[in-house]
Specification:
single chain, alpha+beta, 60s Ribosomal Protein L30, Chain: A, 3 helices, 6 strands, RutC-like_sf, RidA family protein, YjgF/YER057c/UK114
Length: about 130
């Protein structure tokens, strides 16, 4: 994997502008902050982010992959304002689960998720 950083662009914080990779593709469906019993772990956005990322890694493990193989994350959040206000705590959750691996990423505000109490849904693409 090679990070793509155009000359003169500022370094992104918490994501990459682009990644070049080759290998076997693994796609992970949107994961929310519930545990293996289908119970949301918290009503707090940062805790839901941490659990959603752990769920992403659990699916990736089935393909023999880990956080280092993730090349793209797409986050759907129900509140941009809550996301921005929680960035520091979200960063702690992210690093606890993903380490210092920062793939390309997009965050999109949505009006709601299928699971009404979920505040975030995260989908992933990995290259193994």
């Amino acid at each position: 994997m090679r990070r793509l950083q155009p000359p003169g662009w500022p370094q992104p914080r918490g994501y990459a502008n682009g990644i070049e990779a080759s290998g076997r593709l693994v796609f992970v469906a949107g994961q929310i902050g519930w545990d293996e019993t289908g119970t949301l772990v918290s009503d707090a956005l940062p805790a839901q982010v941490g659990q959603a990322l752990r769920n992403v890694l659990a699916v990736l493990a089935e393909a023999g992959a880990g956080p280092e193989h993730v090349v793209r994350l797409t986050w759907f959040v129900t509140s941009r304002n809550e996301y921005v206000a929680s960035l520091k705590a979200i960063g702690v959750e992210y690093r606890d689960v993903m380490g210092r691996h920062f793939p390309v990423m997009a965050v999109v505000e949505v009006s709601g998720l299928v699971e009404s109490d979920a505040k975030v849904e995260i989908e992933a693409t990995a290259v193994v």
